[in-house]
């Protein structure tokens, strides 16, 4: 099974923290859809159509800047070209794009999971993030979503912002929980160097919060969501049982996925599963519209050692962790003496469990990135 990721490169404005590829000119939306359909058809009778597509994810950018008819046209062409056995079709949307009519059109087109980029209801934080929507629009869109035919949806939240108190975060969580979402993605603010936020931090105009503050935010998110029956199943993802994201879980499980659109990444195992390739389309809409997606940018060949390291990094970000036997059988990987000693110390400190599976505890997930970095540098 595999997944399709479709990158829609249009945004109304640049969020201060975002380093994904986008453009703010919208005149070429239909040209983009036409070219995307050409790219879809170029995959006909290829290795990518030999296994069923289980998930489709419209990301961006802001996919909700496309009309429901445009989304429908894209899905129609996918169904013509690929062997589809679809369990989940997700579309990211911003609150200011949502109306009952739009959601109804998306549902008719086949979208069955909405991903709502709320991030916060606090006016000052929305201004700091340079979000296009207001607090009122965020509330209104969740009311519309809760009343719609979408029974599966997720709401995005960002914590660890400069100046964000625990009270502000708690109010955001309480507001989201009023709408009974089956899934929440809660991300700690990441400062990327090439973003507006990254430049302001570099110049000393913004001071990021201390690690202890971010840790307190994380604890509050885990606690409040667990009390509402929404359990953490990955570092940044929480769901009611049975509502975990299928598409993203396939990433963490190292399944094949094909990226379409400018800047989209792909990952595909070779037939014998002892190597794989990763590549991306050039992040340039003008080049894309000229058909330059035919050339793979940044093609990377991955051997089994690379893949084992990657599986470790992905799997240990999830609550389920990794099977020791899977690492040995599928990746020919076993922990070396230094790694085993390190894991033993972590287990004694209550951050890791190692039985037949290895997984991080709540305390371990809180510092997952540093644990993973330590582990892979000991290879």
Summarize the structure.
The chain is an alpha/beta fold. 40% of the residues lie in helices and 22% in strands.
Describe the structure.
- Helix 6 (166-177) runs parallel beside helix 8 (211-227).
- With 379 residues, the protein is of the alpha/beta class.
- 40% of the residues lie in helices and 22% in strands.
- It is globular.
- The protein folds into two domains: 2-249, TIM Barrel, CATH 3.20.20.70; 305-379, Arc Repressor Mutant, subunit A (Orthogonal Bundle), CATH 1.10.10.920.
- It starts with a strand and ends with a helix.
- The protein is built from 15 helices and 15 strands.
Radius of gyration: 21 Å
Query: Could you give me the name of the CATH homologous superfamily of the largest domain?
Result: Aldolase class I
State the oligomer. Answer: single chain
The total tally of domains equals 2
Q: So how many helices? A: 15
- Give the overall pLDDT as a whole number: 93
Structural class: alpha/beta
**Tell me about the biggest sheet?**
9 strands, mixed
Highest-level CATH class of the largest domain: Alpha Beta
The total strand number stands at 15
Q: Tell me roughly what share of residues is in helical segments.
A: 40-55%
Q: Provide the low-confidence segments as ranges.
A: none
Strand/helix succession? EHEHEHEHHEHEHHEEHEEEHEHEHHEEHH
Q: β content, as a range?
A: 15-25%
Strand order of the largest sheet: 7-8-6-5-4-3-2-1-9
CATH architecture of the largest domain: Alpha-Beta Barrel
By CATH, the topology of the largest domain is TIM Barrel
- Overall body shape: globular
Could you give the distance between the termini? 30 Å
